[in-house]
Automatic annotation (TrEMBL):
<dbReference type="InterPro" id="IPR013201">
    <property type="entry name" value="Prot_inhib_I29"/>
</dbReference>
<keyword id="KW-0378">Hydrolase</keyword>
<feature type="domain" description="Peptidase C1A papain C-terminal">
    <location>
        <begin position="137"/>
        <end position="362"/>
    </location>
</feature>
<keyword id="KW-1015">Disulfide bond</keyword>
<dbReference type="InterPro" id="IPR013128">
    <property type="entry name" value="Peptidase_C1A"/>
</dbReference>
<keyword id="KW-0865">Zymogen</keyword>
<dbReference type="GO" id="GO:0006508">
    <property type="term" value="P:proteolysis"/>
</dbReference>
<protein>
    <submittedName>
        <fullName>Uncharacterized protein</fullName>
    </submittedName>
</protein>
<dbReference type="InterPro" id="IPR000169">
    <property type="entry name" value="Pept_cys_AS"/>
</dbReference>
<keyword id="KW-0645">Protease</keyword>
<keyword id="KW-0732">Signal</keyword>
<feature type="domain" description="Cathepsin propeptide inhibitor">
    <location>
        <begin position="54"/>
        <end position="110"/>
    </location>
</feature>
<dbReference type="InterPro" id="IPR000668">
    <property type="entry name" value="Peptidase_C1A_C"/>
</dbReference>
<dbReference type="InterPro" id="IPR025661">
    <property type="entry name" value="Pept_asp_AS"/>
</dbReference>
<feature type="signal peptide">
    <location>
        <begin position="1"/>
        <end position="21"/>
    </location>
</feature>
<keyword id="KW-0325">Glycoprotein</keyword>
<dbReference type="InterPro" id="IPR038765">
    <property type="entry name" value="Papain-like_cys_pep_sf"/>
</dbReference>
């Protein structure tokens, strides 16, 4: 078999394993993904399984490295991440973990470049969302089906997750208030929002170095609103100047508040007010491919801002047929990550801190057009 053909075979095997939801690790602890590759393709005497995985990874994600030294280091990190993915698979059997675009990054690099939540708690004086009735909540709910959610965006190598969570929530609130779905500008927040935590000196929204959704709502409220994505496009770098143009404000914040930790309240606020800005611990997201993430143990240390857009009651788990309620989360790492850019995480026990920092925003109901 020609090398390119055998690579293709390996690639298809990987793909099949990814979409079928087969776990990458068998119960005997061996990495079946690697075995599968070795058994499935014609074994090359020159390349071991890890080299073949790495070659595929580089090809699939268009990776190239500046020097041989860098290449060798990235291969080293990649191998460690293969083992991490296998550990995650064991800890999180309802989801599929494996090779992602982040497989050549150390957890630290991943955190610095692709997360960006700056603080772990709300100020004490934050507005509390009123308690809502929860008796008539639908069993399944998804704002995407109602047209309240824009396409998945990509924060790139910039710790600006918080700005995407903020725009997503305001896009939804604006849709609820006006019936119009806009894509709003994260770059405006990255460049212009330097709002600080009144209780924590030096803790301010700082572009690619991190921020907090509630501070960004505060900035947006004070400052007049957010421009459209197209009027203030995303660059993913800390701009030296703020290019905010008040005459081009497209969506305004009326008020925002903190939702209680109760999962029924979170669901009720989601259904009533639109997608919610939430924080999460993203450690399992570095290796996540699909399924409902429900790790046995996950830190509640919040480090990533995302958007809660819906929930479901029965998880898709072809191997373990078991009902598992989950949240549907919009991420900001492009559509090629996770389930077309989305993450599912189980509901019920504040997994990875997903219930700990939830906020809701209301938009002013004047249309921009
Ligand atoms: C927030 O603003 C919306 C829209 O103007 C309004 O309906 C709602 O009552 C406000 N909520 C709070 C808690 O002030």
């Amino acid at each position: 078999m020609a090398p390119s053909v055998s690579l293709l075979v390996i690639f298809s095997l990987l793909f099949v394993s990814a979409i079928s939801g087969e776990p990458l690790t068998s119960s005997d602890g061996e990495d079946t993904l690697i075995r599968q590759v070795v058994d499935g393709g014609e074994e090359s005497p020159l390349l071991d399984a890890e080299h073949q995985h790495f070659a595929l990874f580089k090809r699939k994600f268009g990776k190239s490295y500046a020097s041989q030294k860098e290449h060798d280091y990235r291969f080293h990190v990649f191998k460690r991440n293969l083992r991490r993915a296998a550990r995650h698979q064991k800890m999180d059997p309802m989801a599929t973990h494996g090779v992602t675009q982040f497989s050549d990054l150390t957890p630290r690099e991943f955190k610095r470049q692709f997360l960006g939540l700056r603080r772990l708690r709300f100020p004490k004086d934050a507005n509390q969302a009123p308690i809502l009735p929860t008796n008539d909540l639908p069993e399944d709910f998804d704002w995407r089906e109602k047209g309240a959610v824009s396409a998945v965006k990509n924060q790139g190598s910039c710790g600006s997750c918080w700005s995407f969570s903020t725009t997503g929530a305001l896009e939804g609130a604006h849709f609820l208030a006006t019936g119009e779905l806009l894509s709003l500008s994260e770059q405006q927040l990255v460049d212009c929002d330097h709002e600080c935590d009144p209780e924590e000196a030096g803790s301010c929204d700082s572009g690619c170095n991190g921020g907090l959704m509630n501070s960004a709502f505060e900035y947006t409220l004070k400052n007049g609103g957010l421009m459209r994505e197209e009027d203030y496009p995303y660059t993913g770098i800390n701009g030296k100047t703020c290019k905010f143009d008040k005459t081009k404000v497209a969506a305004r914040v009326a008020n925002f508040s903190v939702v209680s930790l109760d999962e029924d309240q979170i669901a009720a606020n989601l259904v009533k007010n639109g997608p919610l800005a939430v924080a999460i611990n993203a450690v399992y997201m570095q290796t996540y491919i699909g399924g409902v993430s429900c790790p046995y143990i996950c830190s509640k240390r919040l480090d990533h801002g995302v958007l809660l857009v819906g929930y479901g009651s029965a998880a898709y788990a072809p191997i373990r047929l078991k009902d598992k309620p989950y949240w549907i989360i919009k991420n900001s790492w492009g559509e090629s990550w996770g389930e077309s850019g989305y993450y599912k995480i189980c509901r019920g026990r504040n997994i990875c801190g997903v219930d700990s920092m939830v906020s809701t925003v209301a938009a002013v109901s004047t249309s921009s057009t």
